[in-house]
Amino acid sequence: MMKNTFTEEVEDRYLAGTYQKIPVVAARARGTKIWDMNGKEYLDFMSGYGVAIFGHSNDAIREAIKRQLDEIYITHTSVYSPARARFLGELMKVTPTGLNMAYLSNSGAEAIEAALKIAVKSTKRKKIISMEKAYHGKTMGALSITHSAKYRKSFENMLIPGVEFVKFGDYEGVLALLKKEDVAAVFMEPIQGEGGINLPDPQFLASVREATSSYGTLLVMDEIQSGLGRTGKMWAHENWGVAPDVMTIGKGIGGGIPMGVTVGKKEFVETLEIGEQSSTTGGNPLSCAAGEVVIRELRNGIMRQAGEMGKYVLQRMKEETDSHRLVSQSRGIGMMLAMELRVRFVPVLMDMISRGLITLYSGINTIRMLPPYTVSREEVDRAIDIMKAALDHHLKNQ
Ligand SMILES: Cc1ncc(COP(=O)(O)O)c(C=O)c1O
Question: What residue numbers bound the domain in which 108 lies?
Answer without folding.
Answer: 59-299
